[in-house]
Amino acid sequence: MMTKKKIAFLSISVALMILLLTGALFGQGAQKSSVYRYLSIFSEVFDLVRNNYVEQVSSDQLMDGAFTGVTDAIDEFSYYVPPSQMSAYKSFVDVEDNGVGLVVTKRFGYAYVVAPIAGSPADKAGIERGDFIEKVNGQPTTKMAFWQIRNALRANGPVKLQVLRGGNTKREELTLQSASFHPVALQTNTISGVGYIRVPYWEKGTATQFRAALDDARKRNVRKLIVDLRGNAGGLMDEAITAADDLLTSGLITSLEGRKIEPKQWQADRNTSFDGEVEVLADVSTAGGGEVFASAIRGNNRGKLIGITTYGKAIVQKFVTLPSGGGVQMTVAHYTTPDLKPITDAGIRPDVVVDLTAQALDEGATKGTKRHKDEEDLILKKALQMFGAQEPAAQKKAA
Predict the structure, then answer these.
(1) Pairwise CA distance, residues 377 & 298, whole Å
(2) Where are the domains of the chain?
(3) Topology of domain 187-398, per CATH?
């Protein structure tokens, strides 16, 4: 729950937001009248809170809260580090899978699971996309910055989590132990004559694995292929771009755009490893490179995208050290679809949307422990139907 202090901090943040983003952080000057107006508003709110709030609040607390509110207002992946925390931050190693295989962000004040990486300790423990992590090692995530949550998940010893799932009121207590689960292998299969490749994560060597799977499908005379990107929420963007190029013979794969970076574009070459029909599966746990791959196939009319709208996280970030001694991690660029639209929090909408509302309500009522297994089958079933194939019963249970 948001405290009164947090409300006060966010109120100050509104006054600072435009001044900081257009001025200090990006080095752009604003008109003097606008600067003075925002400074005046900030000064009034600052003095009002400091002199009238029910408890005494230090100026440092208010300023830290104001800067935190600014980054909260930008996007869920940006954050502010106060000078008092910079020493701890310097030892923070920003690794996306954090040793336990959880790609997380922060939503509604809590740590939010975008996806567990296949084969990781988190995946084996049954953590699923959409879960909220209320506590890490007994510490409420509502009181932790995004980077502190990710840092806590990288603990050398056991990581104790308190997890809340949609449709449930009871918290689950789980303990994860950091383990080596890389490389994350692709999963390949043939279902009713249709080739199937699941890409769980983009890491060094994934594109090479993908090309080998395409070569194998071609040698077996497979003419219809499903590429499953559900749960693929991160990793190396270059691997995703290279993999998409293996299915394309022309067109723009993606571009990188931002106000303070050099624009860059990736064009497909003429070579392809598979020239049959293609369908791509995606859902809300598809993010980053998975979104770039999916949009490249869809945007170049190479195949249909089937499932649920993706997460919306194809971005580049940069940490900027401030003169105060603190710093800001912020988004400085975004990847685009082939028609140059940014892949942002709106995500990529599929060509064929699979409605899972009724199923989700039914699973919420039964409070099953693996809520999304049947959901994945529905999307796969739709893809197979579009190819004129049916999902065998044995495959449905194994999916």
Answers:
(1) 22
(2) 4-74, 92-176, 187-398
(3) 2-enoyl-CoA Hydratase; Chain A, domain 1 (3.90.226)
Residue type, 306: I
User: Could you say which DSSP state residue 24 is in?
Assistant: I
Give the residue among 141, 149, 134, 145 at the shortest CA–CA distance from 67.
145
Q: What are the structure tokens assigned to 116, written together?
A: 């567990």
With a CB cutoff of 8 Å and minimum separation 6, the contacts of 126 are: 174, 369, 370
Tokens representing residue 366 in the block: 């039964």
3-state helix, strand, coil in the chain (%, to 5): 35, 25, 40
One DSSP character per residue, 248-296 reads: -SSSEEEEEE-TTS--EEEE--S--S--SEEEEEE-TT--THHHHHHHH
Question: 3-state class of 85 per DSSP?
Answer: helix
Per residue of the chain (399 residues), what is the pLDDT tens digit?
Answer: 445 445 444 444 444 444 444 444 444 444 556 767 767 777 787 777 777 777 887 777 777 777 777 787 788 889 999 999 999 999 888 777 778 999 999 988 899 999 999 999 999 999 999 999 999 999 999 999 889 999 999 877 899 999 998 767 788 999 999 888 999 999 999 999 999 999 999 999 999 999 999 999 999 999 999 999 999 999 999 999 999 999 999 999 999 999 999 999 999 999 999 999 999 999 999 999 999 999 999 999 999 999 999 999 999 999 999 998 999 999 999 999 999 999 987 899 999 999 887 666 555 555 444 444 445 589 999 999 999 987 766 555 444
Query: Alpha helices, DSSP H only, in the chain?
Result: 4-19, 32-52, 59-74, 86-90, 121-124, 146-152, 206-219, 237-245, 289-299, 357-366, 373-386, 393-398
Would you identify the CATH topology of the domain 92-176?
A: Pdz3 Domain (2.30.42)
